[in-house]
Amino acid sequence: MTNDILVFAEQRGGKIHPVTYQALSVAKGLAAKTGGGVGACLIGQGVGERAASLGSHGAAKVFVAHDVELGLYRAMPYARALCAAIDAADPKIVVLPTTFMGRDLAPRVAARKRAALATDCVAIDLADDGLHVRRTLYSGKVFGEYKLAGDRLQIVTVRANAFPAAPQSGGSAEVINVPVALTEADQRLKMHDIVRTGSGVKDVTEADIVVSGGRSLKSEANFKFIYELAESLDGAVGASRAACDAGYQPHSRQVGLTGKVITPRLYIACGIDGAIQHLAGMRGSKVIVAINTKKEAPIFNVANYGCVADLFTLVPLLTQEFRKLRH
């Protein structure tokens, strides 16, 4: 086992997922303590040209697993490919993003490699006695700290926006092609195409900026104010459980403990009082802005900036000003 750190570089449609660069930042910090290098694993079909981007963000080596069967994500072939990259790189630590793909892939690979595993980490540090990680527990009310066994491969997944992205350094990476021998069992489930049914608006779990609306919007039609503000900020649209239960928005946009837990850089809550389950879903946001007519609303207790105002008056004004700034 070397002292190197390997990052799973998640790509979708040939584009590197932004959280990959945050994982590279974590890897660079760990490599500075291990004395090893930083590598990245890129899996897909025709994705080798993306290696240059990984090199410019700090990866010294990029292990590329290219196969027609890897064009679309499937758990078994991707797990086989990542294991092959781990065998080739022989790293001390593997870092994955905590995305839908990372959550599906990490435990499969950990089981195959008999590795120590910690998921959804918000802090990672390497000490003399091993790798220490921090995770949130009980809906973000407390933190749990764990030490991973140092006598084996260690795998961690990192929460989006919990770490800064690695800056471009202008470096380049050595590209190493990794052959992947897929078995019949790996290919027993075939995927022929992906049909996207969404509206094209960003998913709340992957956006840096999220604008959410609550039951105070009063109707699905009034959510146009939320969509316009989100569009002016290039953000995603979220909703409270009450708004989703009322049919104003689909449950795929629900932010909260029973919906999606998010950690954007900016969260704007419009007409949301702040029920416990909603606060649990957005408490990790870097900056929280609350707009509500009720000055005693619980949302103000966690907000960095609070506006006691009518959202139907303030939100259009904010949209107008943000559009001016962007154009």
How would you characterize this protein structure?
This protein has helices at 19-34, 51-56, 75-89, 100-113, 224-232, 241-245, 276-282, 311-326, and strands at 5-9, 11-12, 15-16, 38-44, 61-66, 93-97, 116-121, 123-127, 130-137, 142-148, 154-158, 174-177, 209-213, 236-239, 266-270, 287-292, 305-308. A seven-stranded parallel β-sheet has the order 7-11-6-1-4-5-12, sandwiched between helices. Strands 14-13-15-16-17 form a five-stranded parallel β-sheet. The mean pLDDT is 92. It starts with a strand and ends with a helix. The protein is of the alpha/beta class. The protein folds into two domains: 5-177, Rossmann fold (3-Layer(aba) Sandwich), CATH 3.40.50.620; 204-326, TPP-binding domain (Rossmann fold, 3-Layer(aba) Sandwich). 27% of the residues lie in helices and 26% in strands. The protein is globular. It is built from eight helices and 17 strands.
